[in-house]
Amino acid sequence: MGDPDVGETFRGVFDALSRSIYTISFVRVESVDEDNRRAEVSLKSDSDVTFGNVPIASIYAGDGTGLIVPIEQDDEGFLLHAREPLEQHVQQRGELDPGSSARFELEDAIFFPQIWFDEDDVPDHEAGEIVLEHEGTVVRVDDDGDVAIEHVDGSSLEMDAAGVHIEPELYVSGTAFSDLED
User: Fold this and answer.
1) What is the C-alpha to C-alpha distance for residues 176 and 182, in angstroms, rounded to an integer?
2) Residue 111 is inside which H or E element, if any?
3) With 70 as the cut, is the pLDDT of residue 87 above it?
């Protein structure tokens, strides 16, 4: 037999490289650094393969602002492996020269926590509505800016253009508002 086809060899190498540039790995949380919003995660397919100090993604994150969701050991999500090294990119905002090290490393990744699996119930919601449900308590913000908070025990607070509505009773410093004297 002759030499392998150079074109086929090149195509195989190119395909392998391009698959490794943007890779998603399904993972489980091993531990969480709450102060820095970083996690150590392991592959679902091989718990001996771990990634440490991985930034936890948020749909809203800024300097001193953002949405924090509880992440715990054994939660599942995925890692998005970056094309460029993350070390300098996660230290400051704005344009940044990646420097001379543009080598892809599997450890350069961001953790996206808690996806809904096929077996999971998704919280009830309307299109355009932001919903946060945790342990039976629900916070809803609709696209008109109305806010509703429903406690797991049945109490609720709603804010809309007409005012603030509280059910079943408003308490001021531990005393029911209806019991306060004029």
Assistant:
1) 13
2) strand 109-113
3) no
